[in-house]
């Protein structure tokens, strides 16, 4: 009991260490890509695989790790995940050549599993009324980690070298591993359950084929045999995977669970919110660093571009923390609506007005605050909509879909800007179109928020599908809100 009480107070710190370290590891390599390319004596495409390898590994590992956490308890799985991720980051930081670095980055991608495991742990150790704030805090860490990585990249590279950027996440993961061993309580495993390894293997194949085609499309060409072949392979594997998952007794991803209104609306919104997050990550720095001679660029440095991201990251974190209180008062559906309006409004503002840096700051802060609300809301919608023993896999799939959306945001925004180029420089209309497209994605989130479940009228943590309504459990049977995943009612 004493260990559990300690965990309740220290779980936010553990979540901060683990999630922030993973977010830094994912984002921090981006500013170092030019130097990595030079020192590793590789091409730009080869250097980009330092990011792609971790993205693909995280996409595959996240839902599988979430499922393992549901079956065997989140504590023991979290310890393994943190140990593997730490080993991967150390390998990447000390790598003598590119293949070893890519292997280390792929191992580090297993750390993506900290998200669903952290959500499961929070649900186990916190009372329902404190779950939403903790989920909101963790959901906002991804944006803050990305912003901090850009801000520290310049000084670290200048003073210590680019390899020290890869050592930075280790400083968060090692204390996180110790803290997880010390404070996270054990939970009873489900010995009768088993992992759907065939489903996991097929799912991994779908993700690797689809995300490789998506991330390499610009380098290989969207109509190249490689991209078309991988897309076809992904479609075939997806059809086989859907058939397998519909027939096995204990599927990796329960397709009936994914059809629940609180889950599919949140998942679709996560794809679009991920797009909006990374669209800004591409467009804002490019616009700031574009030569002033273009007539609309600012001729800024990489440091100025990074500083533009800091207020947005801070706004995202504050909004994510506030989302928990708002969840209890107005429900996550309303929080998602507010997040969609704020983010869409921020992008609309900069699409129309981007002649001064203060306008970019204003639009960026609105975007960050809105995404903080949206990310927290979709996570809380999923957590509240599923049974307790399905929290890990459901939030794992939700996190995966954010990654897919983020990849789309990066690639589509880069294509939009590149397509507008005149005499070697992007045209202003490319940025206007890119900002407008991101705003359009948030209009889609707004529509999905209107379809999402309303908060219950009484009791619990505000996570029900509707006012006093019944909903379908993960096993397909109707249950009341008090039974569905611990969303207690009176």
TrEMBL record:
Region of interest called Disordered, as start-end residue ranges on this chain: 456-490
GO cellular component: plasma membrane
Domain named Major facilitator superfamily (MFS) profile: residues: 11-456
Primary localization: membrane
InterPro entries recorded: MFS, MFS_dom, MFS_trans_sf
Domain of life according to the entry: Bacteria
Keyword Transport: yes
Subcellular location: Cell membrane
GO MF, any single term: transmembrane transporter activity
Residue stretches spanning the membrane: 43-65, 77-96, 102-122, 134-157, 163-183, 195-214, 220-242, 263-288, 308-327, 334-353, 365-387, 399-419, 431-452
Transmembrane helix as UniProt keyword: yes
Classification via Pfam families: MFS_1
Keywords: Membrane, Transmembrane, Transmembrane helix, Transport
Membrane topology category: Multi-pass membrane protein
Name under which the protein is recorded: MFS family permease
Annotated organism of origin: Actinomadura namibiensis
Organism ancestry: Bacteria, Bacillati, Actinomycetota, Actinomycetes, Streptosporangiales
